[in-house]
């Protein structure tokens, strides 16, 4: 393996794009959230990264309601120290790029034209997630020690 991370395959188990004909603002930016999850199959020696991109619906009609899940199967060089960080940042970035292009293709045939998701860095999202996990662990440890 000439790179510490290798994408074996990726696929889209969920693709939902619904155009809203009542939306009026042609320059509207899509408001969305991204969730990342990681898992590891020790027996088959691969990692799975899943990202879900979901548009946030508010009271105002939006051009598209979007829900896309993309899953990637990765292999990682065992010599790399922080595999979780690499997968969360680099793996999710690869999948996000694929989803971004996929959404451009799908929405370009819709009534509102192509939606291009902005570029996204998963580094800050990883830091927040790691901080949340640390805080949850600390809270659990404090509860356990009080018993």
Describe the model.
The structure is a single chain. The chain is of the alpha+beta class and 147 residues long. It has one domain: Bacterial Protein-export protein SecB (Roll), CATH 3.10.420. It has two helices and four strands. The protein has helices at 83-107, 122-146, and strands at 5-19, 32-41, 46-55, 64-76. Strands 1-4-3-2 form a four-stranded antiparallel beta sheet, covered by helices on one side. β3 (46-55) and β4 (64-76) form a beta hairpin. The N and C termini lie far apart (49 Å).
Strand content: 25-35%
**Mean pLDDT across every amino acid position:** 86
Which residue ranges are poorly predicted, with pLDDT under 50 across at least 5 consecutive positions? Answer: none
How large is the radius of gyration? 18 Å
Instruction: Give the CATH level 1 class.
Output: Alpha Beta
Please state the structural category: alpha+beta
End-to-end separation in angstroms reads: 49 Å
Strand order of the largest sheet: 1-4-3-2
Number of domains: 1
Return the CATH topology: Bacterial Protein-export protein SecB
Summed up, the helix count is: 2
- Give me the count of strands: 4
Reading the helices and strands in chain order gives EEEEHH
CATH-level-4 superfamily name: SecB-like
In CATH terms, what is the architecture? Roll
Largest sheet: 4 strands, antiparallel
Shape estimate: elongated
User: Helical residue percent?
Assistant: 25-40%
